[in-house]
Structure formats: C-alpha cells, structure tokens
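Person: I keep going back and forth on a fold encoding question. Show me how you would write down a chain together with its backbone fold. Please set it down just below, with no commentary around it:
Helper:
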Amino acid sequence: MILRQLPRFVLLLAALTVMPPAPLHAAEQAPVSNTASPSAQTATPAAVVERLHAALLESMRGGDALGHAGRAALLDEVITQTFDFPTIARIVTGNAWKEASEAQREAFIDVFRRLSIATYATNFSGFDGERFVTGASKESRNARIVETELVKADGEAIPLNYMLHEHNDDWLVVNVVAKGVSDLSLKRAEYTAVIQDEGLDTLIARLEEKVSALSD
C-alpha cells in the first residue's frame, strides 16, 4: 500500500503550501520563476493537477523497480513545473526573504524543490489500487481551487484540494489542503524559528540533510 503512515503523508502533502490569495500578489514579486514547458502554458488548473496525479501514479506503479532515484527522476520535471516554488519559498521564509541575498534565495528555492521531489518519491513508492478522482474547479478571488480525492483500494476517499494561481500564463499550485489540513503555518513557524536562531544558511543546510536522508 502506498500510504505507510497516512497522517504523515497528509502533512507532507500539505507542506507544499503557501498562504491563500491575499498575500500572493506580493509573493509573485519573487525574482526567481519556474520555467514551464510550452505544453503547460495553455493547461487548465484541473489539467495541471491531473498531470501531477498521473506522474504520482506512475511513480507508485514503478515502486521498488524504479527505486528512490528512479522515482525522483520520474517526478522531477512535473513537480518543478506544477508548483510555484519561488512563491512558496517567499512565504515560508517570512521576513527573512527580504533580507536574503540573491544567492541565498536561489539556494533555498533549489533545496526546497529537491526536498519536495524527494518527499514525493519516498511516499509514492508502492501501488495497491489507489486512484485519483478530480472533482469541481472553483474560482476563489485571484486563484482557482481544484477539488480532488485520493481513493484507496478499500474505498476510503482522502480529500485533496489544490489552489493554483496564474503566473506568466501558467497555472501553478500554491497550496494543497489534505483532509482539511494545511501545513503552511507549521512550516513557516519551523523555518522562521531556525532562521531567527541560526540564520537562513543553517536552514538551507538542514534541508540539504533531509534531502540526503530521504535519498539514501
């Protein structure tokens, strides 16, 4: 079965989040942007989410045959093109982003992106009949909400709601709410506490350690 520990999985999904629409306008001013493929530029919000889900199912079915490195390689491109990591980085580092150098910003975005890929590759590592179901797409101020469910083999449905905003003609995920849980406040508190006590460079180093631990 894919979900070895469901509560942990839910939090890990929600960890890839940023605040709802109000702060996004400021966050979009982050100087580093995703590079999306031309094929993604005309995709609807639902299509963006479904592309992610298709890759996750492929990773699950590949399982041990792919290994962690193979699953990470499989998911790298779609995750990079699906999530707005510059905006996420801007939010989860709080006020420290304004004071960070360009090199620090780029380093944080890069390690956070790689940690996200490594986390997905770790958790989507086996298949037991799970499937994703796409529901309604709703407008929410300057964003779109795509409602989906992860349906387990026993019929249990886990709600996953994705928030996307439009950036450079692409729809990018900026929030995931899993079973009603959004982990942004926890991540922001965790990261800003480390930054305040030990600095942004220490946080970057710790995230690098997490990537290494997941990839072993």
